[in-house]
Amino acid sequence: MATLLEFKNVSKIYKRGKTETTALDNLSLTLKDDESTILTVAGESGSGKTTLAMLLLGFIEPTIGQIYYKGKDISLLSGSERMTFRKEVQAVFQDPFAVFNPFYTVEHLLEVPIKRFKLAKSRTEIRDRMAEALTAVGLQPDEIFGRFPHQLSGGQRQRINIARALVLRPKVLVADEPVSMVDASLRANILETLRTLQRNYGVSIVYITHDLTTAFHIANSIMVLYRGSVMEAGGVEQVIKYPQHPYTQLLVDSIPWPDLSRRWGQTDLEPSEDTVIGKGCKFYSRCPKAMEVCKTKPPLYQLEPYQTASCFLFKEKPQLEAESLSKALPV
Amino acid sequence: MNPVLKVVDLEVSYYTDAGRAKALDQVNLELNAGEKIGLVGESGSGKSTMALAMMRMIKPPGRIENGQVIVDGTNLTSLSEDEMLRARLSKIAYIPQGAMNSLNPVTRIGAQMIDAIKAHEPTMSKADMKARSIKSLESVELKPEVFKMYAHELSGGMKQRVCIAIGILLEPKVIIADEPTSALDVVTQRQVMETINKVQAEMGAAVILIGHDMGLMAQSMDKVAVMYAGRLVEVSTVKEMFTEPKHPYSQALIRSLPKLDVRGVFQGIPGLAPSLLRLPTGCAFHPRCQEIMDKCKTVRPENQMLASGSRVTCHLYGEGA
């Protein structure tokens, strides 16, 4: 089984004077070439979600560890390899209002990447390719060509963002909070679009969010981060329906389900003001079940075939090497 | 019981180069003391305009064309500018969208709170002002030390709670919060909502929560008002709204919500929100409506009260249905 993308013991540490902040702590992860998937990276602000996206896109380099794309370290790619990497690993960002140049028509915006990567030979071919991408995201090409971004709604713009990525036929799409600024009624359309991409075009999607509701519906697997460390990971249904790590339990308990029979949980909210992080479990200061042993760093324990948690509550279970995290993530 | 907030036939228009955009169209709403209502709708449906109109903060090219906003017996639309200035915060408080980024980064939280009190009660002693500010901070579960801190020393959730503390300084009768939790993660969101519920219960104030997260409405509101193209198309209790929504738009909205039992089923609402400059004739929702009838294309539906207590603006209900 060929590996498309691999994080190998990646850490990112930001230094400011003498203080060091570990934004991402020893993460290993693989995406396979022949099986596309949707992986959710969930966590609150400051959990390292965006750092992960930036690393994956090659915008920043890891402090420790390597990131491989098709077996090659992405910080050491040659010119042409880098072009391929840029073409095949695409991104959709949070704010559909801020990413477009307001002076250009949609046509122009979609044309730029096609020309840049020399993907089409003639004008008709360019047009066909744009039309195909727009149709794939559920837009009518005739209605969209020639329009300016300000003439489109937020949902339409976000879908054009996805179409822009799609004209390049990417292998990996990093979607950083793609629906958080879109109206609830349009969210469904965008999520459906993302899933169609994965199913019909074989694009693997790394879906970064703090919204577990949408993650539950769209993803195959989930990885819950807290202050740069993996707290729990596994199949999305398993993790969200039966969360085991105290942090995941707190998260899932706080989801405002639009369902009157499922009220907000009664778990007491521990104050989060404490910013001191020791060497041990990063959730220690907030954890309702904190023990003495938690002052040391907990390894990952395998709870189910597709569920692993980094918590000493499960110390009876077999350990899972950090490098083998992906084994607990179904595709 | 006399309602603490009464909005009567409120109408707001924006005069743009492209013509007049009716952002609020005959909006009627009543709210009792201690009641919590969620105001939902797509962007551009008039939610924030409604909040601004109630505060009389609509700026040109927008204008309040008609209607009254009565808070605790006082008609805000007939007050002078000076009187309105005093009514804001003391009778009706507004926590705007992204309020947590509105805190002044170079003055302490306490100074900003005292500013607000001073504007309304210039004769109060400094010690009393401080005592009141700290009491307000405590009621949103912040430590008194926050009084001396700067905004950058606080987390997002704490900043949002400071904004709520400022909002309740003068114990207003009505609190309007515009998407107070949209930038926060679920745990902090729940903390902030629990804070709002707590202060609301202590003060007996009425709360209007603007947002588009139906889950949040289900978890913490008593009633839900659905807005579409500047009109309130349905006002129902949370229970009615989630079990038996009346207006076809509310029904589509409820259907579009993610559920826990079935994974991966999405149902969006087809079509796009209409431009306020070129509203469809008759009922503005008719081009997207699944239960369209002939008269929806020509006759404008009136707002009516149903036997269940819901208010709905749709030809499917009432006389001639």
Question: What would you say this structure looks like, in words?
Answer:
The complex is a heterodimer of chains A (331) and B (321). By secondary structure, chain A is an alpha/beta fold. Chain A is 30% helix and 24% strand. Chain A is built from 10 helices and 13 strands. In chain A, helix 4 (123-136) crosses helix 6 and helix 6 (154-166) packs parallel to helix 7. Chain A is globular. In chain A, 46% of the residues are buried. The mean pLDDT of chain A is 86. Chain B is an alpha/beta fold and 321 residues long. Chain B has one domain (5-313): 3-Layer(aba) Sandwich (Rossmann fold), CATH 3.40.50. Chain B is 30% helix and 23% strand. Chain B contains 9 helices and 12 strands. Chain B has helices at residues 47-54, 81-90, 109-120, 126-139, 156-167, 186-203, 214-220, 238-243, 248-255, and strands spanning 5-16, 19-31, 36-40, 62-71, 74-75, 92-95, 174-178, 206-210, 223-228, 231-237, 303-305, 311-313. An 8-stranded mixed sheet of chain B has the order 6-7-8-3-9-10-12-11, with helices on both faces. A 4-stranded antiparallel sheet of chain B has the order 2-1-4-5, with helices on one face. The chains are: A alpha/beta (331), B alpha/beta (321). The interface between A and B is large, with 41 and 46 residues.
Q: List the helices and strands of chain A in order.
A: EEEHEEHEHHHHEHEHEEHHEEE
Task: Write the CATH architecture name of chain B.
Answer: 3-Layer(aba) Sandwich
| Structure annotation, total helices of chain B | 9
Question: What would CATH call the class of chain B?
Answer: Alpha Beta
Rough shape of chain A? globular
The CA-CA distance between the termini of chain B, in Å, is: 32 Å
Strand order of the biggest β-sheet of chain A: 6-7-8-3-9-10-12-11-13
Note the run of SSEs of chain B as H and E.
EEEHEEHEHHHEHEHEEHHEE
Strand order of the largest sheet of chain B: 6-7-8-3-9-10-12-11
Radius of gyration of chain B: 20 Å
Beta-strand percentage of chain A? 15-25%
Radius of gyration of chain A: 21 Å
Strand content of chain B: 15-25%
**Average of per-residue pLDDT values of chain A:** 86
| Percent helix range of chain B | 25-40%
Biggest sheet overview of chain B: 8 strands, mixed
